[in-house]
Amino acid sequence: MVTQEHLQTARDFLEAADREFAAGDTLQGSEKLWGAASHAMMAVAQQRGWPYGKHGNLKEAARRLYRESGEELLRGGFSAAEQFHANFYHDFMEDFQVEADRPLVRDFVNRALEAIASN
User: What is the largest CA-CA distance in the chain?
Assistant: First the structure.
């Protein structure tokens, strides 16, 4: 998959997450948010020549992007996305957590996509 495909997949997963949450399916919405964040990081890493084949690589790419940009919104967004990924398997997030953290992941993905466009 090339960078542009990862970008589009990230956008598609953001839209799918909104649909799943609107339909009341928190588990599928959670996994779609994770998918959006992970594909955004794959695109960033691929563009910059960073490794991206493993979960740890994506986490490191998020750290590197934060250090590179200094954007506070990039700081906790990937961690929030990881929580949604875990929620898909364990269904542990309370409704207030889902509502509070969804915008963090959305902003993280959008900032990551902007970082690609500006590089």
Answer: 38
Question: Per the confidence metrics, is the pTM higher than 0.90?
Answer: yes
Are the CB atoms for 30 and 84 separated by under 8 Å?
yes
Low-confidence ranges of the chain (pLDDT < 70): none
Q: Which of 65, 80, 50 is nearest to 111 (CA)?
A: 65
- With 0-12 / 13-18 / 19 or more C-beta atoms within 10 angstroms meaning exposed / middle / buried, residue 56 is exposed
Query: Three-class SS string for 38-90?
Result: HHHHHHHHHHHCCCCCCHHHHHHHHHHHHHHHCCCHHHHHHHHHHHHHHHHHH
